[in-house]
C-alpha cells in the first residue's frame, strides 16, 4: 500500500568494504534517491568534497550540534566522531522521499530505535582477506588504524543479522544492482 511517508534505508558495512563506491553507482542509476550526508570530525581525504561526502566539522562544532539536539545519533569510530543531522532526514521523510543513510553499525542501531520502519542493508566483503587488501589499497590509514579497522569490522559483521538485507560486494556492478533491486521492491511495497 503506497503512502506519502518516505522510506529511510540504513546502509552499513565495515570500513573498506566499498560502501561509498556502491552507493555512488546506486545514486547515479536512481536519481530519485537522496543520500543523507553525515557529519564527521575526521580529516577530509583527497577524493572527498565537504557537503557531498560528509560535512567535515571541528570537534567543538560537533559537540555544539549534539548539545542542541541537531544530531539524531553519533558514534566514535577509531579516533573520529560521526553523526547524522536530524533536520534533513525528517524533512525528506515528510516529503515522501527515499533516503539512503550510510552509517556505521553503532549509529544504525540508534537510528532503528528512532525510526523503527527504517530498512537495513548491510554490505559484506567477499572475505576478510579482500577487506584487508582494500583497506591497504586506500593508503589513507597507518598500520595501527588498519588493524583497528579490521578488528572493528569483525565485530560489525556479527551485526549483519540485525539488517533486513545482506549484499556481498564482490563486484561493484553486481552489488549496486542488488541494492537497486531492493530499493525497487521497497518502493513498490510502501
List keywords for this structure.
190 residues; alpha/beta; Rossmann fold; four-stranded mixed β-sheet; 7 helices; 9 strands
- Number of separate helices: 7
CATH homology superfamily name: P-loop containing nucleotide triphosphate hydrolases
Low-pLDDT runs of 5+ residues are none
Mean pLDDT: 90
Strand proportion: 15-25%
CATH topology: Rossmann fold
Please describe the topology of this protein:
Layout: E1 7-12, H1 19-29, E2 34-36, E3 39-40, E4 55-56, H2 59-67, E5 71-77, E6 80-85, H3 86-94, E7 98-102, H4 105-114, E8 119-124, H5 128-138, H6 143-158, E9 165-168, H7 172-189
Parallel strand pairs: 1-7, 1-8, 2-7, 3-4, 8-9
Antiparallel strand pairs: 3-6, 5-6
Explain what you see.
A five-stranded parallel beta sheet has the order 2-7-1-8-9, with helices on both faces. It has a four-stranded mixed beta sheet with strand order 4-3-6-5. The protein is globular, with a radius of gyration of 16 Å. The chain is 44% helix and 22% strand. The protein has one domain: Rossmann fold (3-Layer(aba) Sandwich), CATH 3.40.50.300. The mean pLDDT is 90. With 190 residues, the chain is α/β, with parallel strands linked by helices. Helix 1 packs across helix 7. It has seven helices and nine strands, in the order βαβββαββαβαβααβα. The protein starts with 6 loop residues before the first strand and ends with a helix. Strand 5 and strand 6 form a beta hairpin.
